[in-house]
């Protein structure tokens, strides 16, 4: 190198100051980490490794996901709209400052509609300390670094908080855009966008969970006039939270994009680097699991199972049974483990729903998952797809003789639920999408005993077109007919000693329209006996 970078001293204090300025969006001046390119004319600090230089291709959509072991691994991801050199993350503990470097791998896809290539960089950071705050900055040669912080998962049984919602969209500024494809001037709007898609991110940051579960239908890029832009706006919006805590996604039907791979999931599989163990590359990142404390989270891709055709391509059965076989293995090992108490399923389409202007439950999901969830005692299912909030009573088995395999409530309690005896399903589809369905819950007297009806898809006959059967929805728990938007917070209390009771305290928050304020809709508790008691449940 003939051009020797000019040395500049930057104290740790200044580096942290720059970090803060970067996060808040204030002008901190262009910075480059490590050895910059010749054209960037960088100046490198011998103390921090930070260098200044000219920004070229900016870091966009910075976001985190857990690695396979959330105690010691984190993936830092970002997007660029050109190829870049040496994508990397510098990181260290919050008290110690930057000091280590993790190099990123780059994945790309070519959007089939626009022909545009998208570059996504994923740096896996390993050998982190459990339950510890870290500071990091992502960059590539010539770019201004973009920074964040994260907290690693605790080791063993410990209290922590996670959150969940689905069906978000990229945010719009006004409430008018809705699903309207164009105004009188002929300008395209993004379908499905509302301001709630931004407000809900602020809501998650107010709670500040260890991680967030994003239950599919992430941004509805497949319905928009510019898919790449919708994805970028979605990632930019969520980066306000996802750079500080992992947002763990499930792929929903609106992630299936025409022209983007055989399954239509190329964009999703490129934007995220998830702890998938699948060995077939075309199935990578579609289902995965991770464990935090005593909670095992299993994330599924339901378009393989569902009867309903809800994406640009009908992909039912695409893994030839690999996903279901994997699911049963995961469930079996989780229930056999003395370290795991709770099994949480994150998926998109639903096994329960009593909204009439929506999709309804899907019989194929009940057939495939119902017996497994019962056998291995799944505690909680978080899903979306219906654009409302509804939760079931704890259910186990089916109502005898029901052709729709109606989930059978194991208890009537709504406030404290004995989770060992039934699975609670929560539809959390109020993440911000415009086409809301909370105004269409059934209120009839279906059986003469005050139970309402619900609809179940029993046969596929085309896109969003299914044969539906009516059932008496004896499983209905709580529904929010008044508010379309909101998310759930889960506080895990691990208990104090082996065999003690452990609890998950759940709060469902509304995002109030049009202001975006948070308000509590309801609270309830799931409880079960810890799996480390030695002589089982009494
Ligand atoms: Fe949706
Ligand atoms: Fe959906």
Topology summary:
Blueprint: E1 6-7, H1 12-24, E2 32-33, E3 43-44, E4 50-52, E5 60-66, E6 74-80, E7 88-93, E8 100-103, E9 105-110, E10 117-125, E11 133-139, E12 146-151, E13 160-165, H2 196-207, E14 211-214, H3 227-242, E15 247-249, H4 266-271, E16 288-292, E17 295-299, H5 322-336, E18 342-346, E19 361-362, H6 363-375, E20 380-383, E21 389-392, E22 395-398, E23 407-409, E24 416-418, E25 424-428, E26 453-460, E27 466-472, E28 476-479, E29 486-493, E30 501-511, E31 518-529
Parallel strand pairs: 1-3, 13-14, 14-15, 17-18, 18-20, 19-26, 20-25, 24-31
Antiparallel strand pairs: 2-4, 3-4, 5-6, 6-10, 7-8, 7-11, 9-10, 11-12, 13-29, 16-17, 21-25, 21-28, 22-23, 26-27, 29-30, 30-31
Helix pairs in contact: 2-3
The structure holds fe (ii) ion (2 copies).
Overview of this structure, please?
With 538 residues, the chain is an alpha/beta fold. The protein folds into 2 domains: 146 residues, Immunoglobulin-like, CATH 2.60.40.380; 361 residues, 4-Layer Sandwich (Purple Acid Phosphatase, chain A, domain 2), CATH 3.60.21.10. 14% of the residues lie in helices and 30% in strands. The strands form 7 sheets. A 7-stranded mixed β-sheet has the order 15-14-13-29-30-31-24. Strands 16-17-18-20-25-21-28 form a 7-stranded mixed β-sheet, covered by helices on one side. It has a 4-stranded mixed β-sheet with strand order 1-3-4-2, with no helix packed on it. A hairpin with a 6-residue loop joins strand 30 and strand 31. Helix 2 packs parallel to helix 3. It is globular, with a radius of gyration of 23 Å. The N terminus is likely disordered. The structure holds fe (ii) ion (2 copies).
């Amino acid at each position: 190198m003939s051009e020797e970078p000019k040395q500049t001293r930057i104290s740790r204090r200044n580096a942290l100051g720059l970090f803060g300025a970067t996060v808040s969006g204030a002008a901190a001046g262009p910075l480059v980490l490590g050895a910059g390119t010749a054209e960037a004319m960088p100046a490198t600090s011998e103390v921090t490794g930070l260098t200044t230089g000219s920004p070229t291709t900016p870091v966009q959509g910075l976001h985190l996901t857990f690695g396979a072991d959330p105690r010691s691994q984190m993936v830092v991801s970002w997007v660029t709209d050109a190829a870049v050199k040496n994508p990397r993350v510098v990181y260290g503990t919050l008290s110690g400052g930057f000091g280590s470097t993790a190099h990123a791998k780059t994945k790309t896809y070519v959007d089939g509609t626009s022909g545009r290539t998208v570059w996504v960089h994923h740096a896996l950071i390993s050998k982190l300390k459990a339950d510890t705050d870290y500071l990091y900055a992502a960059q590539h040669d010539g770019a201004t670094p973009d920074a964040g912080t994260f907290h690693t998962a605790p080791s063993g049984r410990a209290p922590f908080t996670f959150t969940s919602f689905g069906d978000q969209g990229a945010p719009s500024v006004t409430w008018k855009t809705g699903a309207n494809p164009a105004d009188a001037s002929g300008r395209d709007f993004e379908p499905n966008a509302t301001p709630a898609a931004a407000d809900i991110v602020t809501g998650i940051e107010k709670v500040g969970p260890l991680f967030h579960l994003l239950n599919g239908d992430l941004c509805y890029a497949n319905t928009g006039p510019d898919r790449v832009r919708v994805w970028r706006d979605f990632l930019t919006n969520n980066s306000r939270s996802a750079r500080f805590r992992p947002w763990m996604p499930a792929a929903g039907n609106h992630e299936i994009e025409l022209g983007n791979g055989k399954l239509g999931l190329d964009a999703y599989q490129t934007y995220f680097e998830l702890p998938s163990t699948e060995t077939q590359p075309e199935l990578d990142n579609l289902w995965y699991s991770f464990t935090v404390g005593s909670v095992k989270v299993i994330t599924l891709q339901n378009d393989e199972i569902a009867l309903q055709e809800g994406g640009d391509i009908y992909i039912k059965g695409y893994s030839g049974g690999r996903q279901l076989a994997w699911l049963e293995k995961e469930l079996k090992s989780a229930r056999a483990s003395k370290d795991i108490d709770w099994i949480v399923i994150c998926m998109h389409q639903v096994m329960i729903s009593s909204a009439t202007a929506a999709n309804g439950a899907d019989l194929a999901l009940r057939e495939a998952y119902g017996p497994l969830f019962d056998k291995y005692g799944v505690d909680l299912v978080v899903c979306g797809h219906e654009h409302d909030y509804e939760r079931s009573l704890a259910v186990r088995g089916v109502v005898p003789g029901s052709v729709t395999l109606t989930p059978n409530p194991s208890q009537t309690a709504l406030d404290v639920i004995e989770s060992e005896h039934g699975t609670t399903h929560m539809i959390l589809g109020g993440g911000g999408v415009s086409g809301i369905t909370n105004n269409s819950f059934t209120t009839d007297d279906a059986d003469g005993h005050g139970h309402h009806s619900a609809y179940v898809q029993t046969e596929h006959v085309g896109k969003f077109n299914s044969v539906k059967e009516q059932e008496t929805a004896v499983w209905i728990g709580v529904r929010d007919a008044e508010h379309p938007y909101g998310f759930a917070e889960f506080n895990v209390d691990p208990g104090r000693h082996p065999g003690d009771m452990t609890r998950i305290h759940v709060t469902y928050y509304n995002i109030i329209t049009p202001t975006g304020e948070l308000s509590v809709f309801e609270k309830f508790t799931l409880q079960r006996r810890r799996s480390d008691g030695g002589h089982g449940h009494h």
